[in-house]
């Protein structure tokens, strides 16, 4: 790998694969890719480069396509593109070195022999593990409070990785048989990518762009579903309204961009302290809502106190200063403070108002209902 002799057939293969990747990117551009939508199927073209060509090609392939993404689809901060290119290039180069070490003649991959195909699958898996691992380490380093499971695989991302690996190996085999077969592989990959992007756009429409949590409409739909289920099963359910104390002061002092960082930081803290099946969303402004299935009064108070304590220890760096904030929360429990979503929201909102009146940075439940005073009948005069 210290010296690679560039041959015309290899250059033609590399150019054809990059052209296919460019077509996929153009298809993405026409459909649109807003911030937050990041999964694609470009590994279908990066993997064949790693398997069929010398390792140096695997280093250059992501650079070309990332530049095209930045220019034609969506401009983002340069360092993210640079890191993505580096992570993909290193992962692809490593997989290429391993594959070429055991299969010096890559032409055997297109002959249908089991050994080279299984090795290609293994190297594709190595590519996915290294790429995901590098990105996860970078994400966790930038935010140590992030849980590893949030930056590694979940069921959906693992399934997408398997699809990409299968596509990459199949494209490599077809390309090895005859370069013209790329014409047959391109339409299915483009169709799959458009379907994937459409699903991601639907998911993005449910989330708040500043925090990544559910937006108010999506949260309400999820909450209504949970309440119906709780009624049917007879289980308990609690609702929290969380408000950042004196958030306007943060915006006025440091600006709205820093305020957005505080919102995102609080949102991330809430998410890391809740269970996977808890429903958390941004209600608007500096307010968040949390639905806690199967939580009674004691559990709801315990969760709310944990959130309050954890947010209170959070610090956001801005202008050589560390910004700390506190939260107040109102708690309402189904059947105790209300029977439907509207009643629970009203009760939790009253409890939040009470927490603010008592000095903020605290958790409150709705005040006990005041019974009307009973008037004792006047004693009858004695005769």
Entry keywords:
two-stranded antiparallel ribbon; 383 residues; single chain; alpha+beta; disordered C terminus; elongated; five-stranded mixed sheet
Write up this protein.
The chain has 383 residues and is of the alpha+beta class. The chain has 13 helices and seven strands. It has helices at residues 8-31, 43-52, 55-73, 78-102, 114-142, 148-151, 155-177, 182-204, 216-233, 247-254, 256-272, 297-312, 341-357; strands at 237-244, 279-284, 287-293, 316-318, 321-323, 327-333, 363-364. The strands form two sheets. Strands 2-3-1-6-7 form a five-stranded mixed beta sheet, with helices on both faces. A hairpin with a 2-residue loop joins strand 4 and strand 5. Helix 1 (8-31) runs parallel beside helix 3 (55-73), helix 1 (8-31) runs parallel beside helix 8 (182-204) and helix 2 runs antiparallel to helix 3. The protein is elongated. Mean pLDDT is 85; it is low at 369-383.
């Amino acid at each position: 790998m210290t010296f690679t002799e560039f041959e015309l057939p290899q250059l033609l293969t590399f150019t054809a694969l990059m052209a296919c990747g460019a077509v996929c990117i153009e298809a993405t551009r026409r459909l649109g890719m807003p911030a937050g939508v990041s999964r694609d199927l470009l590994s279908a073209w990066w993997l064949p480069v790693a398997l069929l060509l010398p390792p140096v090609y695997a280093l250059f392939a992501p650079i070309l396509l990332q530049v095209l993404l930045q220019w034609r689809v969506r401009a983002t901060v340069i360092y993210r593109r640079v890191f993505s290119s580096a992570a993909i290039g290193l992962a692809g180069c490593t997989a290429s070195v391993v594959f070429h070490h055991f299969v010096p003649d890559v032409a055997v991959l297109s002959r249908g022999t089991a050994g080279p195909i299984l090795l290609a699958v293994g190297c594709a898996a190595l590519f996915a593990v290294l790429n995901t691992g590098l990105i996860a380490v970078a994400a966790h380093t930038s935010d140590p409070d992030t849980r590893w499971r949030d930056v590694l695989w979940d069921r959906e991302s693992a399934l997408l990785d398997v699809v990409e690996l299968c596509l990459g190996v199949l494209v490599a085999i077809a390309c090895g048989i005859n370069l013209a077969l790329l014409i047959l592989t391109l339409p299915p990959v483009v169709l799959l990518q458009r379907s994937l992007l459409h699903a991601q756009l639907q998911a993005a429409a449910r989330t708040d762009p500043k925090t990544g949590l559910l937006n108010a409409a999506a949260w309400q739909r999820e909450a209504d579903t949970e309440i119906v289920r709780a009624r049917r099963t007879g289980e308990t359910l609690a609702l929290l309204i969380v408000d950042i104390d004196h958030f306007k002061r943060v915006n006025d002092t440091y600006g709205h961009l820093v305020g957005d960082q505080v919102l995102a930081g609080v949102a991330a803290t809430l998410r890391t302290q809740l269970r996977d099946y808890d429903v958390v969303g941004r209600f608007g402004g500096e307010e968040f809502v949390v639905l806690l299935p199967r939580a009674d009064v004691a559990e709801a108070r315990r969760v709310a106190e944990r959130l309050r304590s954890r947010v209170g220890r959070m610090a956001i760096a801005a202008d050589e200063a560390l910004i700390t904030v506190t939260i107040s929360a109102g708690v309402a429990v189904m059947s105790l403070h209300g029977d439907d979503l509207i009643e629970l929201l009203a009760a939790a909102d009253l409890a939040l108002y009470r927490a603010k009146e008592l000095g903020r940075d605290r958790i409150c439940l709705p005040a006990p209902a005041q019974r009307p005073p009973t008037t004792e009948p006047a004693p009858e005069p004695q005769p």
